[in-house]
Amino acid sequence: MSSVLSPRLWLVLGPLLLLLVTRTTPLLAETASEATRIVAVVNNEPITSRDLFERIRLSIVAAGLADDPETRRRLAPQILRGLIDERLQVQEARRLRLEVSEAEIERAFAAVAQRNGLSADGLAQTLRRMGVDPQTYRQQIAAQIAWGKVVERDLRPRVVVSREQIEQALAETSDEELLLSEIVLPVYVADQEAEVMAEAEGLARSLQREGDFAALARQISAAPSAAEGGDLGWVRLDLLRPEFRAAVANLPKGGISNPVRGPEGVHLFLVRDRRLATSVSAAEREAQIRNRLASEQLQRLADRRLRELRRRAYIDIRA
Asked: Residue 259: which of 203, 220, 178, 179 has the closest Cα?
């Protein structure tokens, strides 16, 4: 089925959305009609203004960003894209008969609560006090689990790391490692790149002033690392793509990179720490490289599957 989604519609600049994202939170609940207004349809499944507002609110609260019209305007395009992708991912899991149980969702919800020093009930109460329905977060968790099952069942078996790839990586050397986090903003069509770059620049400015990089990564990043707050762990400079290496090589601890274009979209990096590369055996070094190459390959396969799902989908953004 062909998509009715145009490059311009991806920017979500219709008058309806501009009205929605500049409203204050109390106004969002004024009428049932506002809450149930359909802002997008994905293969006959609607996304309502309430869905969008709840996710924007969750992102602002989680990341500690200013809750003002400018922040909501900046976040809205990426969050709507994320909601559309989530619908596609859940639909694909359903097609493959991969189910997510309530027990799995509750375990993941409880794990998030524990990382924040709370019980599951305590996290739910905290979200409510901040104006976020806990069910919004549970739905996001369910979508992440569903897509994870698709990736593990259908895509991971296709990952093959060749000896040639490993030897090429071994030939490159660096004596420094960076503790990195990332946010990836997808670029769905070539004409959209400049706009996504501008969105990324705005997010970088916001994060440099205030906010929690990891929390925002969990909400809007399109990378598999999003579930871990964008955490990439300790990465040797020589294992990074050249364009990424150039973006982070001179950043201080706590520095956020300028947006940089990569195969999966536009990347922002946070350098959480730096150190001299630890001494490891040849076997350990090879294992690190193999794992890194496999992870990158799996991400490319997942991105390719999602692009195919978008290409075949009926997606209608309503202004």
From this structure: 203
Per DSSP, the residues of 64-126 read T---SHHHHHHHHHHHHHHHHHHHHHHHHHHHTT----HHHHHHHHHHHHHHTT--HHHHHHH
Helices 49-63 and 213-220, axial angle in degrees (round to 10): 160
On whether the CB atoms of residues 290 and 162 are closer than 8 A, the answer is no
Helical residues (DSSP H) of 130-192, grouped into ranges: 134-150, 163-171
Q: Could you tell me which residues are beta bridge partners of residue 273?
A: 179
Rg over alpha carbons for the chain, rounded to the nearest Å, is 20
CA–CA dist 146, 96 (Å, integer): 10
Dump pLDDT digits (tens) for 76-129: 888 998 999 999 999 999 999 999 999 999 999 999 889 888 999 999 999 898
Q: How far apart are CA 91 and CA 105, in angstroms?
A: 17
pTM above 0.85, yes or no: no
Measured CA to CA, the distance from residue 133 to residue 68 in angstroms comes to 19
Per the listing, tokens 């909400």 go with: 219
Residues in the chain: 319
Please give the domain boundaries of the chain with CATH numbers for all domains.
173-282 (3.10.50.40)
